Amino acid sequence: MLRRLRRSNLFSFFQLGSALTPLCVAGLAAVEGCGRRDRPPQPAQVQQLEPERGRLSKISEGPNSVRLDGLEPIRGFAAGRDCTFMHCLELVLKGLGRPVEYEELMGVSGMAFRTQVRIDRWDVGNPDPLVGESCVEPLFAAIGWQYDVQVVRRDQMSQAAALRGEIVKSLDKGTPVLAANIIRPEDWGIIVGYRADQQWLCRSYNGGAQERDRLANGWPTAVVLLGNRQAPRARQETIAAAIRRAIDLFNRRQVGKHALGARAFEIWSQNLRSAGDRSYIHPNAWTYVCLIDARQAAARYLRDAAEEFGAKGEHLSKAAAHYEREVEALQKGYRYVPSERDYPDSMPPPEMRDRQIDVILQALGYEELAIGELEKAL
Predict the structure, then answer these.
(1) 3-state class of 32 per DSSP?
(2) What is the CB-side half-sphere exposure of residue 236 using CA atoms within 13 A?
(3) Which of 5, 70, 218, 340 is the most buried (most CB within 10 A)?
(4) Same-domain status, 28 and 160
(5) Euclidean distance between the first and the last CA atom of the chain, given in angstroms as a whole number
(6) Cβ contacts of 202 within 8 Å, gap of 6 or more
(7) Is the CB of residue 374 less than 8 Å from the CB of residue 243?
């Protein structure tokens, strides 16, 4: 049955290789346990808005063939846009005429501040915004857009056909579709067209599709369809909500099978101490890299927000400084994070895990200082 959830430079890690890609939807209940290695609040009443000038144009390339032209290229990994969902959304929104910068999306959603670790096993989906503590509801509520998350398996024939029809409908009205796993290994990408042979034209972080449209080689494990535009929330309101969310994400201990905030750092450290085989290497490294990217976005978001937050804006600047120190510590400690390329057939030495634990706990200390400043801002 079709599952529908209706809801209204950086640090370089090329040593990790293309294997370090986030699992996009593994934490969703509908797809619990799917393979990983290869890789809201109700909306306000829809309002009449001033026309927004998009930059996308619909091109017909033959019978039953459409392509949306004008989307900017994906920047790719190690370019300050390592949350693949958020960067794909950033590009789509810009193409549709309502640009929202990456750090703003990360901040208002909570992704800039969220740390989560799966408790029962190593999981490369830890940093995905749809997994565990979902960040999509506050995100779309803040930017003012209705949306629809759909998850359907390819072997569910009638539901798959219905999903394909909805994707075609979105493209026909000039709106690209966010999709996971369309170019393997699994990651978020953008469907920008379709052909008469029912193949998708798309681009993704993987497969060299950053600057040109390619044929999909995977069935989407999840899609996000954008619906009606709404008036975005007031800037002061979104900043205050983002601060409250950051504090909550740090103090809350668990959601489902994921540890959050301070407890996530502790569970992560415990799991490193007890790692017994190489299965930890890939998800550990990807979680670490995405933590760096998230806190860089947090610092940028808070520094921008501080200028608009009045007398207590100084606390946002101080919090940003703590996150910047955390990023610096994590970058220096990256040499203690093993990659599968360096250890293709053997376990990293335990001393290496011990040093990484020290860095993680140091990062936790900076997090506590940053949250303390955010608490003073409210």
Answers:
(1) coil
(2) 7
(3) 218
(4) yes
(5) 44
(6) 179, 182, 183, 189, 190, 191, 192, 193, 209, 213, 214, 215, 216
(7) yes
Contacts of 298 (CB under 8 A, 6+ apart): 103, 106, 107, 112, 113, 246, 320, 323, 370
194, 210, 229: which is the final residue of a domain? 229
Quote the tokens at residue 199: 């193949």
**Together in a domain, 225 and 260:** no
Task: Report which of 262, 274, 293 is spatially closest to residue 363, judged by C-alpha positions.
Answer: 262
The total number of residues written for the chain in this structure = 378
Given pLDDT bands bounded at 50, 70 and 90, which one contains residue 29? very low
pTM: 0.86
Q: Which of 111, 114, 113, 89 is nearest to 100 (CA)?
A: 89
The mean of the pLDDT values for the chain is: 87
| pLDDT of res. 10 | 36
Looking at the DSSP assignment, which residues form a beta bridge with residue 223? Answer: 150, 179
Q: How far apart are CA 275 and CA 353, in angstroms?
A: 9
Alpha carbons within 13 A on the beta-carbon side of 275: 27
Residue 21 CA to chain centroid, in angstroms?
Answer: 11
* 271 and 207 together in one domain: no
The residue among 201, 229, 257 that closes a domain is 229
**Nearest CA to 129 among 110, 155, 107?**
110
Please report the pLDDT score of residue 8 as a whole number: 36
pLDDT at 3 over 70: no
CATH number of the domain encompassing residue 17: 3.90.70.10
Domain count, the chain: 2
Tell me the C-alpha distance between 250 and 354, whole Å.
Answer: 24
Tens of pLDDT, residues 59-111: 987 888 999 999 999 988 888 899 999 999 999 999 999 999 999 999 999 99
Mean pLDDT of 114-129: 95
201 and 239 fall within a common domain:
no
Could you tell me the residue range of the domain that residue 281 belongs to?
A: 235-377
Dist CA 126 CA 118 (whole Å): 7
